[in-house]
């Protein structure tokens, strides 16, 4: 585990945290190249390549005193390394809150890592994954205690503005664009680590600072 846990600003008592998979430079470049295909859609705010990632869990605002315990809990995870591929595009939300994203192919290894990250975080923050913990039924099949709310994805853009009177037409245009968009065939990458990030919001966009990196055994 490579630590950078002392970079939180001393004058702040809390930090905005999330756990995510970092994406290799060549994959981020390929995703950014797709932005030229989103012409004719509502005004979009594109994700900067240096901030692209795949979130495993967003913790939100957390007391800085808990950062080290959270990192220690995450360091106990022993999921194997694996490969992952982005295969399709989609959207969340509506109107000005619409998010455009690239989604990945189903992956049992990714699901396993996600569950283990949630379980590790819950040892420090018991309510952090209360609705996402997995259990095993009598037949040994993995089930969730409630419907999952996590869709693995990388955010490509957010709708900057969509006037109310044009929202319906704008939403249809986005849906048509998503259905017609085809991701390149080479968006596969090795998942060999995950990261605890601190996120600082500003008018210039979010800045993500890695606080701790956790290697996955090969």
Can you characterise this structure?
There is one protein chain. With 218 residues, the chain is of the alpha+beta class. It has a single domain (2-132, 149-215), classed as Cyclic Phosphodiesterase, Chain: A, CATH 3.90.1140.10. It is built from four helices and twelve strands; from the N terminus they run E-E-H-E-E-H-E-E-H-E-E-E-H-E-E-E. The strands form three sheets. It has a five-stranded antiparallel beta sheet with strand order 1-12-11-2-4, covered by helices on one side. The longest helix is centred in the middle third of the chain and has 15 residues, at 108-122. The radius of gyration is 18 Å and the shape is globular.
In DSSP terms (H or I, runs of 4 or more residues), the helix count works out at 4
Query: What's the gyration radius in Å?
Result: 18 Å
| Spatial order of strands in the largest sheet | 1-12-11-2-4
Number of strand segments:
12
Largest β-sheet summary = 5 strands, antiparallel
Indicate the mean pLDDT.
Answer: 81
Number of separate structural domains: 1
- List unreliable stretches of 5+ residues: 132-148
The CATH H-level homologous superfamily: Cyclic phosphodiesterase
Q: What is the architecture at the second tier of CATH?
A: Alpha-Beta Complex
CATH third-level topology: Cyclic Phosphodiesterase, Chain: A
């Amino acid at each position: 585990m490579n630590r950078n846990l002392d970079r939180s600003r001393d004058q702040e008592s809390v930090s905005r945290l999330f756990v995510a998979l970092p994406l290799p430079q060549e994959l981020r470049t390929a995703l950014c190249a797709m932005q030229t295909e989103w012409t004719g859609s509502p005004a979009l705010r594109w994700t900067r390549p240096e901030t692209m990632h795949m979130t495993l869990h967003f913790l939100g605002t957390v007391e800085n005193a808990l950062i080290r315990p959270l990192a220690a809990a995450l360091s106990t995870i022993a999921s194997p390394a694996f490969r992952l591929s982005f295969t399709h595009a989609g959207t969340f939300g509506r109107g000005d809150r619409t998010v455009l994203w690239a989604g990945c192919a189903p992956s049992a290894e990714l699901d396993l890592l996600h569950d283990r990250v949630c379980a590790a975080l819950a040892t420090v923050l018991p309510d952090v994954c209360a609705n996402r913990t997995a259990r095993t039924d009598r037949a040994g099949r993995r089930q969730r205690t409630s419907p999952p709310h996590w869709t693995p994805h990388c955010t490509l853009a957010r709708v900057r503005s969509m006037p109310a009177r044009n929202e319906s037409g704008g939403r249809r245009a986005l849906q048509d664009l998503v259905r017609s968009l085809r991701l390149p065939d080479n968006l596969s990458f090795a998942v060999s680590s995950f990261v605890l990030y601190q996120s600082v919001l500003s008018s210039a966009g979010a800045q993500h600072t890695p606080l701790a990196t956790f290697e996955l055994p090969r």
